Structure formats: C-alpha cells, structure tokens
Sequence to fold (172 residues):
Amino acid sequence: MTRSTIPYALGALLVAAAVAAQEPAGGFRVEVDQADLERLGAPEGRRLAGDELAERTHAVAALMRCPSCQGLSVADSHTAASAAMRAKIERLLALGYSEEQVLAYFEASFGEFIRLAPRPEGFNLVVWIAPVFALALGFVLVARRLRSARKARRASADLERFRERVRAEVER
Fold:
C-alpha cells in the first residue's frame, strides 16, 4: 500500500464501520429499545413480514412528514432522518404495533407536526372545514355575480325597449 492510498483505505474503513453499526449518518437511532416498547404498550396489531411489511411500512411512512425536508413525506425523503424513521417504522410494524401506535410513538417525539394530514378533531377541524367553506362561499359569490349580470342585461334590454317606444312616439 502506498502513501497516497492510505487516506482512501481509511475512508473505506470508516464507511464500513458506519454500515456495520446500522445507523444512518447523523446519529439517528434505528433500534427500538425496551423504553420505547414500554412507552408504546402491548402491540395491538399482528406481526408483519415480507411484502406485507414493506407495503405497510411505506403506507405508514407516507402519512408522516420528514422532519428535515420541506413538504416531503418520510416515504419520499432520502435524508438520514427519514431512513432511520422508516427503519423504526418497519421494526415496530414487524413487532405487531398498529399504524396508530406507530404514529403516536413518533407524535410523542415530534408533536402532531409529524402527521402530513392533521387529525380532524379540536382546532384541526378548521383545516378540514375551511376549504369546504371557502368552496361554498366561492359558489355563492359566483352565483350572485351571474345573477347581477343577468339583471343588468335584462335592465339594459328593458331600457332599449323603452327608448324604441319613445322614438316611435316622438316620430309620430
């Protein structure tokens, strides 16, 4: 080994050590320890494995917001934090925890912000109701505008008929 290859060998050794530790870069813990399991309680679902586990992991990760990305779900993000969260989601689902238990676990750490779609309860109802209200208000405003335009056309037509009658009277 020459002196110029030593830095590359050391770099490869560091990468291998990081992969062996199975922790993504950034120090995010992937393993679920006993304290996590105690906080979650008993699993409410059934243990998952194989393709079903992969599908459920993706589905649950798609419900969660990446803590370090703007507007991406954990399923779509490629950050170290999201990779660690996906691994933890997969581990919890494999142990038999339900989707709600997994979401509650992450909510305890990150707050309700972690959910891409807030639960429809309490003040969050505004987020669910406001678009419907705004759409209904838009329909009402458009209907009023069309009605007033129709009235204006009718009034214009009435005015034109009146003018014709006046011209006819004047010409006699």
Remarks:
- The first helix runs from residue 6 to 21.
- The domain at 3-117 is CATH 1.10.8.640 (Helicase, Ruva Protein; domain 3).
